[in-house]
Structures are given as structure tokens and as C-alpha cells.
Amino acid sequence: MTALEFCSRLGSFFNLCAIYYVVQLVRCAMVSVAVAAVVFLLRRTLFQNTVFIKGALWSLFLPCLFAGRMKFFYENSVGILLFTWWNGIFMNHVWLCWLYLCGVCISFLLFFQKRRRLKRLSACMEERVVEGTAVRVAQLPVTPFAAGILKPVIVLPQVILQKYSKTEIQTILLHEKLHIRLCHLVFYALWDILRALLWLNPLLIIGTKLFREDLEEICDWATILKSSGSAYVYGQLLLKSMRILQEENDAFERFAAFAGEKGYRSIRRRIVRITRYRRYPKVAAAGMALSVCVCAAGMSAWIGHHSFDRYTKSDSIMVYEYHPQKQDARILAYAPESTLKNNQKDSSNFRQMISFDDSYVYVDGEAFNRFLQKSHADGEIFLVFGGFYKLPGIAGYGYTCCYENEAMERDVRIPYESRMDWTLHLVKLL
Q1: Quick one: CA dihedral 391, 392, 395, 398, positive or negative?
Q2: CB–CB of 323/382 below 8 Å?
Q3: pLDDT of residue 255
Q4: Contacts with 154 (C-beta within 8 Å, 6 or more apart), sequence order
Q5: Which residues contact 135 (CB under 8 A, 6 or more apart)?
Q6: 3-class secondary structure, 216
Q7: Are 260 and 242 in contact (CB under 8 A)?
Q8: Which residues are CB-contacts of 23 (< 8 A; sequence separation ≥ 6)?
Q9: Within 13 Å and on the Cβ side, how many CA atoms surround 201?
Q10: b/e string for 375-403 if b means 16 or more Cβ within 10 A?
Q11: Half-sphere exposure of 244 (CA within 13 A, CB side)
Q12: Which of 80, 118, 179, 357 is most buried by its number of CB atoms within 10 A?
């Protein structure tokens, strides 16, 4: 193999990967649009005042990431109508796939840079132990927040340490530690990954603010319960934090923050949610969290069960005619796997003429020649059969052999090579 051939095959492999993954991601993005509409509707209607169920609704987005290979897109008339028409567009215009992947890379880069910048800023801050908790102290009047996944840190501004009482500081630290214990920082990272992969869905941008609001409300309720205080005292502390920080500096940012919403309306909504606080049993909350995990895992498993495997062996058979002088090809017959279900009679008659194993193709010469005469075939005859496919019509491979149409034997046996090159083995691993 020459260097030019190697580069050509490598380029074809990368284009195939782009098509294969982008088709799935676009389907996931379209499914996530419907999921977002359902989540937005339910959190504003049925579950508007149910804090934990409203927060649990966001777990419906996780199974969306596994929906790209579902058989629904190929075996259901609605799925075929809504989701398969762009497959040909992506295969004929591969640059659209690379454009989508560029959007994914840019989104990941922006999220990575934002987190890296925050990590660098916190690393430059003074480290101090406050009420038995290691924190980073910011000289700027930023709102308290927790950031990081593997090694989360809590950042407190110097102004809060100077002007707050011991009990108030303990409450703020408790709030940030609960963000960490409840895995909210991990959920924020998963949401960023979801937004990057499915950036085509504009509703995810709107959902980011709502998602953070719902997790913040859960953390507020958990903080009030564990601090043994009242919702009134907690709301007063929130207003005090906003007043002091805004007096110091009106421009501040928020991550997993105690008092991070900007603007009067956001603060008003959060205060209203705090006034609805009711004591709840911890066991019930833990049970609901476990139920959410089980449901999300169950939905993902159900989607996986109704999806195509990593690759599927094919028993399809195609016969086509080729005229070297005209450089023209014509498909004479095609028996895909779906034909076995939808048109079993025609397929079974056709497959009685042609069969194959790992080394040979077997043709009923008399019946096949009658078929060629009926089809007015006078060119070279080729058989394409077997192989595998990743998804129907996408990333497939079949074996081929030439049929000598002068043969009149009852049983014609044609040898073929079933070896695949390295690119096809990589395609199987995708």
C-alpha cells in the first residue's frame, strides 16, 4: 500500500466516522427537543411546587444520549418520516458532519476554558480553615461558590468572613458542602457535556438557567433542614448576602453558589421558593434520588435493548449489471433483510437461487439465467452479499463476486475472499 492509498483510506475512514456519529447526535438532539418541551411543561404545571420531583425531571435528558441507534428510526413510520430523510444529506455532504463536530469541539473548548480559568483563580487564593472547613478566600467581593469535580473547593470572599457571624458562616459553608455532597457539581458537568454534544438544540440554553435554579432550590431546602433553622432566617441571610456583595461590587459570577442569581426577579423567585419550604423526611428524599437513578438506568437499558448493536451481520443480496463501454450500472434485484419480513415470498424465491457461506457463493444457474433473460441483462453481472452494517444504509460493507452468465450448470459455486482491511476492522469497533 502506497502512502497515497493509506491517506485516502484514512480520510475515508474519518469521513465515515463523522457521518456515523453525527447522524446519531442529530437524532439525539431532535429527541432532546421533545424531552425539553415535556420537562418545561411539567415543571411549570403538575410539579411546580414539588421541589424534588421537579429536580428529578432533568434526569430524562440522560437517556437521550443513547437514543441515536434506536430501531424506531427505521422500523416505525413516524421515525422514518421525521428522522431518516437527512441521512442522505449527510452522506452526500460530509462537510455538514464536520461542521457539526466543529460546533461540538468549540462548545467543549469553551466549557473547558471556563473551568480551567476558575481553577487557576481559586489556586491563587489564600487557603484557610474556616469553622473546620478548608476554603479559599477571595479578596474580591465574589459570591460564595463551590467548584471542581475530583477535588472540589469552596470559595468565600473576605468581606463575608469579616461581616458575618459564626452561625451565618456555618450556614453558608453548609450550603456549599451540600452542593458537593449532593453531586450537583457532577450534574453541572454532565449538563455541559450534554449541551456540547447536542448544541443543535436551542432549548438546552434556556434549560441551563432553569436546571441550575431547580438544583439550587433543592440545596436551599436541604440546608434549611440540616441547619435546624427557619426558612425566614435563611431568606434573611440570602438577602443580606446579596446586599453586602452588591454594595462591594455589582458584577459577580456564580457556579454552585449560595447567593448567585443576578437581578431582582431572580432573587424574588428564589425567596418565594424558600417561603414554600416544608420539612421533609430524609429517607423519602434519599429514596426518590435512588428511584431517579434506577429509572434513568432502566430507560437507558430499554433504549439499548431496542437499538442496533455495535455492528450487525447482514444477509442481504444484491445483483447488479455493469456495462464497461457505457460505464453504466443497473441494479437488477435487491433482497435486504427487511424484505424477509415485509415481502417474504419474493425474497424467499430470490434467495432460493442464491446463497453463500464463508468461502463460496452458490447459484442455481438455470433459474438465475432465466431471471437474467427476463431482466434483459446483457452486461457483466456482479453479486454483492453478506458483510455487516453499523446502521441500515450507513457504514456498511458487503462482499462481491462476478457471475459468468454463460454458465448453465444446475449448481454454480463461486469462490470469494472474505478478508477485510484494517479500516473495516476499525469501523466494527466504532
Answers
A1: positive
A2: no
A3: 45
A4: 133, 134, 135, 136, 144, 145, 146, 173, 176, 177, 180
A5: 127, 128, 129, 153, 154, 155, 156, 173
A6: helix
A7: no
A8: 68, 86, 87, 90, 391, 394
A9: 26
A10: eebebebbbbbbbbbbbbebbbbebebeb
A11: 20
A12: 179
Q: Dihedral of CA 393/399/405/411: which sign?
A: negative
| Whole-number pLDDT of residue 408 | 61
Asked if 55 and 214 touch (Cβ cutoff 8 Å), the reply is yes
* pLDDT at 122 (0 to 100): 87
Main-chain dihedrals φ then ψ at residue 376, nearest 5 degrees:
60, 45
C-alpha cell at 36: 425539553
pLDDT, position 172: 92
CB 300 within 8 A of CB 62: yes
Task: Please check whether residue 60 is in contact with residue 38, taking contact to mean a CB–CB distance below 8 angstroms.
Answer: yes
C-alpha dihedral, 315 to 357 to 412 to 340, nearest 10°: -20
The pLDDT value given to residue 346:
47
The pLDDT of residue 348 is: 53
pTM over 0.85: no
If the chain, 430 residues long, is cut into consecutive pieces of 10 residues, what is the mean pLDDT of each piece?
79 88 93 94 89 90 91 85 82 92 95 90 89 88 86 90 90 94 93 94 92 92 88 86 68 48 67 86 85 88 90 84 80 68 51 82 84 84 85 82 72 80 79
pLDDT of residue 426: 82
Q: Tell me the DSSP string of 69-103.
A: GBTHHHHSHHHHHHHSTTHHHHHH-HHHHHHHHHH
Angstrom CA distances, 293 to 46, 57, 61, 72, 149, stand at: 21, 11, 12, 24, 19
Q: What is the pLDDT of residue 186?
A: 93
The answer to whether the CB of 277 falls within 8 A of the CB of 231 is yes
> Do 224 and 280 contact (CB within 8 A), yes or no?
no
**CA distance readout (Å), 314 to 13, 135, 348:** 20, 59, 16
Q: Give the span between the Cα atoms of 99 and 103, in whole angstroms.
A: 6
